Amino acid sequence: MRFCYPVELTDDGDGSAAAHGVLVTFPDLAEANTFGRDRRDALASAVDCLEEALAGRICERAPIPESSPARGRPTVAPGGLIAAKTALYLALRAAGLSQAELARRMGVRPTTVQRLLDPRHASNTNLR
User: Fold this and answer.
1) pLDDT-derived band of residue 13, with 50, 70 and 90 as boundaries?
2) Rounded CA gap, 105 and 123, in Å?
């Protein structure tokens, strides 16, 4: 599952990128806004912004919206690790499973599942 979200890019308004650059907003994630010096820099910043927005929603145990159609807008996707953690988070919510129940079913300690879902933890495949 990919989490590819469309973005709106807005120039600073005076026709130049020198003053404020390019504002990036995510129509599907109201809390996600960033900027860059130019379009390329703004899109690079948007990746970090998207990852932070997804991480924040996971930590708050908030819903994660599906992405809306791009309709000609540029799109941004998170890196593989946060995408995997987001997919696991959504799967748990959809199944109505707690972290403790997933740990029991996997035969691992609850802290292992906590780390798998922790956006700040560089999880690996060593599940002990």
Assistant:
1) low
2) 19
Domain with CATH 3.30.160.250 in the chain: 5-76
- E strands present in 1-128: 5-6, 8-11, 22-25, 33-36, 75-76
Instruction: Give per-residue pLDDT as tens, 21-44.
Output: 999 999 999 999 999 999 999 999
Pair 123, 115: CB distance under 8 Å: yes
Q: For domain 5-76, is the CATH number 3.30.160.250?
A: yes
CA distance 82 to 74: 20
Q: Encoding tokens for residue 106? A: 């996997």
- Whether the pTM exceeds 0.70: the reply is yes
Cβ distance 93 to 62 under 8 Å?
Answer: no
DSSP state of 124: -
